[in-house]
Amino acid sequence: MACSHINLLKLCVGTETVEDLARWQAGRAATNPHGLPRHVTRMWPKRADELLDGGSLYWVIKGVIQARQRVIRLDEVIGEDGIRRCGIVLGAEIVRTEAAARRPFQGWRYLKPQDAPRDLPKTRTREEALPPALATALAEIGVR
Predict the structure, then answer these.
(1) Tens of pLDDT, residues 43-82
(2) pLDDT in tens, 73-120
(3) What letters, b where the CB count within 10 A reaches 16 and e where it falls short, cover 36-55?
(4) In degrees rounded to 5, what are phi and psi of residue 105?
(5) Residue 141 and residue 144: Cα distance in Å, rounded?
(6) What does the alpha-carbon distance between residue 144 and residue 137 come to, in Å, rounded to a whole number?
(7) Which in 35, 53, 88, 99 has the greatest CB count within 10 A?
């Protein structure tokens, strides 16, 4: 049976490690009324129904997908400038994934379930990434 959900892929700018992401979110989550991490973005996903049907946000840290978080809901956020934005509310658990190199991009991208890196077992706190050039070359020929 085919998956009915879609994932998002997002650069995690300003962090060096998954631990940095967790610390940043812990501080920010405390200020949100719902107590969960939220990432605000300008664009509203057109495939919101698929995203909310089990999708995750995969974080690219230092050019490598390293972790994901379940997308809980999408909140409308109106900025001080009056512009409507999308608040992507995430589950509190950060799940580490296999390392997968990604080139830089702006905003976010959709990520099909079959293209997403697998979760690491909970007993493994990290996976050593291949050098980005090698990981990219392998990905281009279909090897993960």
Answers:
(1) 999 999 999 999 999 999 999 999 999 999 999 999 889 9
(2) 999 999 889 999 999 999 999 999 999 988 888 889 999 999 999 999
(3) ebbbebeeebeeeebbeeeb
(4) -155, 165
(5) 9
(6) 10
(7) 88
